[in-house]
Amino acid sequence: MGDVIRFVPKSELERIRLIREARAIYDSIFPPTALVDEQPYGCPAQSTQSSSDSLRNAVEGE
Questions:
Q1: 18 is in which domain, residue-wise?
Q2: Contact by Cβ (8 Å): 44, 50
Q3: pLDDT tens digit sequence for 48-61
Q4: How far apart are CA 59 and CA 62, in angstroms?
Q5: Is residue 59 assigned to a domain?
Q6: Could you give the CA distance from residue 32 to residue 26 in angstroms, rounded to a whole number?
Q7: Considering its fold, how many domains does the chain have in total?
Q8: What's the helix, strand, coil split of the chain in %, to 5?
Q9: What is the dihedral of CA 19, 20, 25, 28, to 10 degrees?
Q10: Which of the four pLDDT bands, split at 50, 70 and 90, describes residue 8?
């Protein structure tokens, strides 16, 4: 008896659907990190420093 029904506009449902679809496409192109962590062809492991940190350090002169 105390149920609350929330109105969700059609545009909001469409936005959520598009975000899910875009995320699925992105994940199909760029696999999740679990697959990326494997090193192909016996290459040494890369630094865990992100590219944004590398760029920031290069700009700051570190």
A1: 8-35
A2: no
A3: 555 555 555 555 45
A4: 8
A5: no
A6: 10
A7: 1
A8: 60, 0, 40
A9: 140
A10: very high
